[in-house]
């Protein structure tokens, strides 16, 4: 079997699909969570994203008179497998919207599919800013973050504090290249310099040669463009090499709290991270975190919180429209303010990007932490108008509509 599937049995990998079949209003809303359930990004999203989507569906109750159906699949970090699953879902399984997708290359392929199929792709995990740039689609939303916000957030703050020479350890993917590019632009715009960078394979177990290059660069800041288990491995091995002890600072540009949990505070203390959500920010986030923890025995990441948020808002729009009609639903999603535990009057823009604040955190020391999962102290809020790329700079044709 070429992929794992929850909620349906797949008999063969499709390499081509029929014309999109429009689901009738007599079928329930069906949402597909397409994620990594078995590899380096599984703790950041994985089953947690599925459970977060289910929580949102349960909270919504009946939609168009029926319970919402959540299905999920593991694309195994293979774009061709993910494309085939998405095609099967859209064309044959009456899936109305796909969420999650922690792989920008796959997300871009799915975004292209939405244009002809008129099905929705609501990405809470995919990061490439191209999704709301030149390759935008009227049926796509980028919900939680993008490489522009993640690249500009921590870099601008650190450069302004005098930490102005950078070296990047970058995952060799579309996501990695996009995030390094956005971060490099931010460093240079602030008057800093980028001494060098090195590309790393996904799922590597030994980053020593890459860390030695970063060490020898003498850069003040090592920008880590890694995610999930790869980020955890880099931080652990960086501590073993003594890079922080020698005065170099790590800035994790795509951090999620699961990676910090995996590394531990001893080895991750002092690292700067930028996230759209932290479970212990306020009473609302703590209420959601408690519900999530009861199911997953872990605190939610920003990706998993985003899964709840995007499903919640989508279902509100469907209810308001009284129909699945994708054009009407997307218009309503843009019209309605986004309000939930992680969103406060956020707005879905014409290009598909959600305007939301970004938060800078510093990882606590073991002495500062008072309980399990008490890992971050907030050091800055980057307001949405500063965190998100200006609408007229992305190159999205929808921006002028």
Automatic annotation (TrEMBL):
InterPro entries reported for this sequence: BCAA_transport (IPR051010), Leu-bd (IPR028081), Peripla_BP_I (IPR028082)
Signal peptide (residue range): 1-23
SUPFAM superfamilies registered for this protein in UniProt: Periplasmic binding protein-like I (SSF53822)
Gene Ontology biological process terms in this record: amino acid transport
Keywords on record: Amino-acid transport, Signal, Transport
The keyword Transport appears for this protein: yes
Top-rank taxon, per record: Bacteria
Ranges where the Leucine-binding protein domain occurs: 28-364
Family: Belongs to the leucine-binding protein family.
PANTHER family linked: LEUCINE-SPECIFIC-BINDING PROTEIN (PTHR30483), PERIPLASMIC BINDING PROTEIN OF ABC TRANSPORTER FOR NATURAL AMINO ACIDS (PTHR30483:SF6)
Protein name: Leucine-binding protein domain-containing protein
Source organism (scientific name): Bradyrhizobium ivorense
């Amino acid at each position: 079997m070429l992929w794992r599937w929850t909620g349906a049995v797949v008999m063969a990998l499709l390499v081509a699909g029929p014309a999109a079949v429009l689901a009738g209003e007599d079928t329930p809303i069906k949402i597909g969570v397409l994620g990594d359930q078995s590899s380096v990004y599984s703790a950041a999203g994985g089953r947690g994203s599925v459970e977060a989507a289910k929580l949102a569906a349960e909270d919504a109750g009946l939609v168009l008179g029926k319970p919402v159906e959540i299905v999920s699949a593991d694309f195994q970090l293979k774009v061709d497998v993910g494309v085939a699953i998405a095609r099967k879902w859209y064309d044959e399984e009456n899936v109305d919207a796909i969420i999650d997708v922690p792989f920008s290359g796959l997300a871009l392929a799915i975004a292209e599919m939405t244009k002809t199929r008129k099905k929705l792709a609501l990405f809470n995990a995919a990061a490439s800013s191209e999704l709301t740039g030149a390759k935008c689609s009227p049926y796509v939303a980028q919900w939680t973050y993008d490489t522009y916000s993640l690249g500009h957030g921590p870099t601008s703050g650190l450069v302004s504090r005098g930490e102005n020479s950078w070296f990047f350890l970058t995952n060799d993917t579309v996501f990695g290249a996009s995030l390094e590019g956005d971060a490099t632009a931010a460093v240079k715009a602030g008057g800093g310099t980028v001494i060098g960078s090195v590309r790393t394979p996904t799922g590597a177990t030994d980053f020593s040669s890459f860390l030695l290059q970063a060490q020898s660069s003498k850069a003040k800041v090592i920008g880590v463009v890694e995610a999930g288990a790869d980020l955890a491995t880099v931080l652990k091995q960086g501590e073993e090499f003594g890079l922080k002890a020698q005065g170099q600072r790590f800035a994790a540009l795509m951090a999620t709290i699961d990676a910090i949990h995996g590394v531990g505070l001893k080895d991750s203390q002092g690292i700067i991270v930028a996230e759209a959500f932290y479970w212990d920010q306020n009473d609302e986030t703590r209420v959601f975190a408690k519900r999530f923890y009861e199911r997953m025995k872990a605190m939610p990441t920003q990706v998993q919180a985003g899964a709840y948020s995007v499903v919640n808002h989508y279902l509100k729009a469907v209810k308001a429209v009284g129909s699945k009609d994708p054009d009407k639903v997307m218009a309503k999603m843009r019209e309605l303010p986004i309000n939930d535990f992680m969103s406060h009057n956020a707005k879905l823009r014409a290009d598909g990007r959600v305007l939301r604040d970004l938060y800078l955190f510093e990882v606590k020391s073991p002495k500062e932490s008072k309980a399990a999962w008490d890992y971050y102290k907030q050091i800055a809020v980057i307001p949405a108008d500063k965190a998100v790329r200006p609408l007229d700079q992305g190159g999205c044709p929808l921006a002028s509509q």
